[in-house]
């Protein structure tokens, strides 16, 4: 795999460079100098899968069961109602109820990031306020995309500025071009990083050059960059990312927290070896098989996966076997 084979040579200088001094701890894994971020997002966040019963209703008992199992893993916090939470298929009331359920079960020292993005600015503000009232610490706001051609830099800056102004909790931008067809423009990110209530971005695009440039261009702001995938977590740390929101953490939470730990300790050989073993399983539960694959894999590791909400369909027996083989080949099963 191209990413895997390039890590050994191309990342070695970048990893060594992680010992440089930078203005803020939120700039990544370097020795902090100066002020701390207002809210430290450093660490691993699993974007929780929303459990459904066979009737297609949200299964809150199974959600609570998964949360009990996750409690022993040293996550920085949890993300609810991200892409892996099937948020487009949930009604607004369901979205708020899921946040309330997670907040009740989550220790106060664990951050709760809640997806509150909607297509209109007005609806996003309304849902963001409701998420805050339900106990969310941070609002994760995806780019509006239905009228993608009209989503200019100016339109997006206006949208997020309005949300940031109105939100009672900090806001993290969310760029996921594989789902939205829209990459939040760099110019918009740089502008929005100056907003006092916008504290970071989850970038799921996988362009490491872009992520490094984001870190560089926002280095004077209280702004943190989060990797949106386990496949490029180590590489994103190499260019200064603060943490990761990784679908694979629903399944392999401890190994991802270990990767985070190894990077922060500068144990790069061990970190590289672990990163290599995570790439194929992560691709399998994201690009290859998506949420149905993620939920199936969760069942093999003691969590409740269950069905997706229609029209997302379950995997075929052949797909299940391919998925299982991917985990086995990398030593996880």
Automatic annotation (TrEMBL):
Active site (UniProt): 174 (proton donor/acceptor), 202 (schiff-base intermediate with substrate)
GO biological process per UniProt: glyoxylate catabolic process
UniProt cross-references to InterPro entries, sorted A to Z: Aldolase_TIM, DapA-like, Schiff_base-form_aldolases_AS
GO molecular function: (R,S)-4-hydroxy-2-oxoglutarate aldolase activity; 4-hydroxy-tetrahydrodipicolinate synthase activity
Organism classification: Eukaryota, Metazoa, Chordata, Craniata, Vertebrata
Catalytic activity: (4S)-4-hydroxy-2-oxoglutarate = glyoxylate + pyruvate; (4R)-4-hydroxy-2-oxoglutarate = glyoxylate + pyruvate
Recorded family membership: Belongs to the DapA family.
PROSITE patterns for this protein: DHDPS_2
Gene (UniProt): Hoga1
Binding site for pyruvate: 245
Enzyme nomenclature, EC number: 4.1.3.16
Assembly behavior: Homotetramer.
Protein name stated in the entry: 4-hydroxy-2-oxoglutarate aldolase, mitochondrial
The organism's place on the tree of life at top rank: Eukaryota
């Amino acid at each position: 795999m191209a990413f895997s084979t390039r890590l050994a040579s191309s990342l070695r200088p970048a990893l060594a460079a992680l010992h440089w001094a930078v203005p803020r701890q939120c700039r990544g894994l370097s020795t902090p100098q100066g002020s701390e971020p207002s809210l430290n997002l450093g660490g691993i966040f699993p974007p929780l899968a929303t459990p459904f019963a066979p009737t297609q209703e949200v299964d809150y008992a199974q959600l609570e069961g998964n949360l009990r199992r996750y409690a022993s893993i040293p996550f920085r916090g949890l993300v609810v109602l991200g892409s892996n939470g099937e948020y487009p298929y949930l009604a607004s009331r369901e979205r708020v109820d899921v946040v309330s359920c997670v907040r009740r079960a989550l220790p106060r020292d664990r951050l709760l990031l809640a997806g509150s993005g909607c297509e209109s600015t007005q609806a996003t503000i309304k849902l963001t306020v409701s998420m805050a009232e339900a106990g969310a610490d941070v609002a994760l706001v995806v780019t509006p995309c239905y009228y993608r051609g009209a989503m200019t830099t100016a339109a997006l800056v206006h949208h997020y500025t309005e949300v940031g102004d109105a939100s009672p909790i900090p806001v993290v931008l969310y760029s996921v071009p594989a789902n939205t067809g829209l990459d939040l423009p760099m110019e918009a990110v740089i502008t929005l990083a100056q907003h006092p209530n916008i504290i970071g971005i989850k970038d799921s695009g996988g362009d490491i050059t872009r992520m490094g440039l984001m870190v560089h261009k926002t280095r004077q702001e209280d702004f943190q960059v989060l990797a949106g995938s386990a496949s490029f977590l180590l590489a994103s740390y190499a260019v200064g990312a603060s943490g990761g929101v990784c679908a694979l953490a629903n399944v392999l939470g401890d190994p991802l927290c270990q990767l985070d730990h190894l990077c922060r300790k500068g144990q790069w050989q061990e970190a590289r070896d672990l990163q290599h073993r995570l790439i194929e399983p992560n691709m399998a539960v994201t690009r290859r098989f998506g949420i149905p694959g993620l939920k199936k894999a969760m069942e093999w590791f003691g969590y409740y996966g269950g069905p997706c909400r229609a029209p997302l369909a379950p995997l075929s027996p052949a797909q299940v076997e391919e998925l299982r083989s991917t985990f086995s080949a990398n030593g996880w099963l």
